[in-house]
Protein 1
Amino acid sequence: MITSINELDLSKKYSYAEYLTWQFADRIELLGGYIRQMSAPNRNHQKILRNIVRPINNFFYKSPCQLFIAPFDVRLLDKEKSLRADKDIYTVVQPDLCVICDKSKLDDRGCIGSPDFIVEILSPNNSKTDLKDKFKLYEECGVLEYWIIYPSDKIIHKFLLENGHYQLKDVYSPTDDAYPTLFPTLLIQLTDVFEDE
């Protein structure tokens, strides 16, 4: 049993089966088998997350689609492998927010397979990961809609998966009303999301 992240070799590739044996407080993700340490989100990040979750949670109340917020493990499968054995999974992410409509992807440990909709909120410590690594990962694994929130600029980039590649479909400003393409009747008022205290 691994009880400290210091016991791990950060240059080594690990599987989800190994991830399950780790018992330490540090938040991590596995990207292609490699450990990515996650810092605690700052207050502004949490405020934006709280504010965007509110209308989404209300919209999906008693719906077949379900909303989950971090920390919530999403195991993404390699396109070349359909196996679901823990030892064959090398990517485990914790999106800030995700919506899953296929109940067969859910189990007691989280989600196995791609969510339909993911929202990530950038922070100084994760901007490279979310803008490059996770962008490519979500695209390759078939996440249908991906939003990236830029807290300092108070804007959102909305990407849709088309022919296997993300296309930028909208850039929302802080006074816009935003709508996920997958859920066009879900209104998200960004004046509420980015409200000043």
Protein 2
Amino acid sequence: MQSIAHLWIIVPLLGFALAFVFGAVAQRSGFCAMGAVSDIVNMGDWGRMRMWLLAMTVAIIGGNLLSLAGLVDLGKSMYTGQQFRLLSYVVGGFLFGVGMTLASGCGSRNLVRMGGGNLKSLVVLLFLAVTAYMTMRGLLAIPRMRVLDALALHFEGGQDLPTLLQHVIPFGHRAAQWLLTGLIGLALVVFILQDAAFRANRDYWIAGVIVGLVIVGGWYVTGYVGHVAEDPETLEEMFAATNTKRPESFSYVGPVAYSLELLLLWTDKSLHITFGVAIVAGLLAGAAAYALWTRSFRWESFASAADFRNHVIGGILMGFGGVTALGCTVGQGLTGVSTLALGSFVALASIIGGSVVTNKALYWRMLREP
């Protein structure tokens, strides 16, 4: 019992430390999925996208090596479940992509910007948190569950690619996992490193590796350090200090909502500082520490009413879309994809699609303005 109580302290503390590193690295390198898409659409520059894909590559390889070594069971995460909610992934992901473009970044990027003194990000995060909570447990949960989640396919055994491959090729799950991890990892590495400018940019490739390792570290902390095979009270398996009660890694929609809930209901003894809440605080602290250390901390606010409107709408869309799609650019794009879950790849493609469309629409509108 005493050791389990300690896990509710150790797991959040380790999550905070990992997120602190993430925040500092993101502040230094400009690590941002929305920025990466915007660079490609508006300037044809793939530098930040290659950095982001490198983080994904490290997360896929590292996460699956943990799984193959028997340290973490990725099949128990929320991403690899048997219900493939196609409409939720597509609609939620697309809306999240639109929202993150209007709000100048996803949830994690707005935490980083807030750490640097950006007050616009504070407004975005407040609207994101309230909307996400409403989508999980409030009014917006009704259309999410009755309309979007209702259209689901059932995959016996799970929706991760190694399991699905077994239905096509007579491989064992372990062999399929080795094969897919190797092929996907190799393809990504070849694409990433073929650009000489990216290879010469130390900040980009170092940041990509570190962020990827942070995602792997999240799996290790919640899936191995915090894993209890049999809780003495319930006699059931337990993953200490996780909101999903499963192994999880980094994501920044649900955890922002849970952080606001904890602040509002601090005296409610049923609520605890979880891994998700800790990584929100850690990311903000790491970004702020780096900004203060480099003297780049600057207060920034809205330029106009239209700027305020776009950021509010962006926060609302990210809150609803992120919960509906089961994650954001970090939650699905890095953490979810690292499990090789089919739904994560669909959600990520939809997020990028929403961002591309919105970037083009904003550019077209800018050209038409006098």
Protein 3
Amino acid sequence: MKIETRKLELLPYQIETKGRLKILTSSRSRQEFPVTAIQESYLQQVAQGKSLSSIAMDTINGGQTFSFRELFNLMWNLISLDVVKDPEVFKYFQKVHEEITTCPLPTVKAKAAAVREWKKDSIATLPFFRRFKKDIIETFIQNSEILEVPERTKVVGLGETSRDMFAILEGEASVYGPGLKHREFITTIPAGSVFGEGAFFFNRPRTADVITNMHSVLVRIHFHEQDFQSFLSGQNKTFLEERVWIIHGLLSSPLFKNVPPETMDQFVNIGHLRQVEAGEIIFRQGEPGEGFFVVIQGKVVATHNQRLIHTLKQGDIFGEIALMIDRRDRTATCEVAESGRILEVGKNEFYKVLTQNLILAREIEEIAYKRDREING
């Protein structure tokens, strides 16, 4: 059961008034923490046996503003005071807090870690394969081999007609398409992703070069028509190709790269993949906020009062301000600058996922407030 959906049992705690502040304390710790009015409200509901998810969802459904940041901070303070009885909750928040405070995102991409032992059945853990039935997974495994590939090695080339598909277990690769004078960079493929799906699913010639950026470990899935014929029939092909693109985009985002597997799967399954063309308006400033978006391929520009605010690329999110801050109307106009694909998640589905994923919700809320300050000062 997810931490957010559990009923949490708390050991005794106290809230004391010191001047204008209310202070959260416990006899089990010498620490003390200020508690805000909204945190006190959340704490009362936790003490009454409500799960974190139900507290969030009930508040949102009631038309009130909910703060995932306040709930996260409250939970961390309760853990620091040693009043959360469930050790799994302690481990969950402690691990995430350590990652947030001690592991900032590097500004320069680090080299791949030392190659560890991989097995062919490791592909079953990757996002693209996780929801397949056991017999289908076994078919992929039986037709696969592990490859250790040096840095700057071409794995597939433009125009090639081989139908094999690849998954990146460790490392990273870049995609380069044809240009007027030289190859043009298209996108980066992070660890956990699949590529070569067009050839595998649709028997298309390769449309680009894929070159490793660092020493990488890949799984090569050999195409054997007799093994995959029934699996690749009808509309299943299009669904699978779209799934590949969505996963590429999400894994390219620092926001989604380390989320729990079930969270990634939720976004893959509830999101709607849209093909968008340059010049297309996704939404305009002042319109009601009805959805959340992730750039899967291409570029989107955000403008406020015709002033450029952000240029958004693969893996970047947008539309979060209207959904996370006082349910506002759109604070910017978002227009497609470079044709591609975006993932759209409806408002209700967005809230449902976040109320069961407090850490991701907190991060998205932080982005929303940061961008709101950049727009409004």
Protein 4
Amino acid sequence: MFEMLKRWFGGGRAGENGAASAGGEMISCEKALASLYEFMDGELDDLSQEAVEAHFETCARCHPHLSVQRSFRTRVQAALSRPEVPEGLRNRVVDLLAGSDSEI
């Protein structure tokens, strides 16, 4: 709960934008946002991943960008996962489509 409050009110370690990596080095909002998709995909090296994560955990301006992208990705994945079609229905559709080719 405390971390969320810090994030929303811009708290955290002192610095230009309130975000620091685990080692204390600050990364800019621009660098964090430029690395957003690689961060979400786990494609950054360990140090960069930690620095970007620390930034998003403490920066009130950048955290909403991460939240929106995670939400968007979750919704797209949910929309893409469709239930399997029963075999009987699939066969009927294939048969109907095969029959329609001869009528064209």
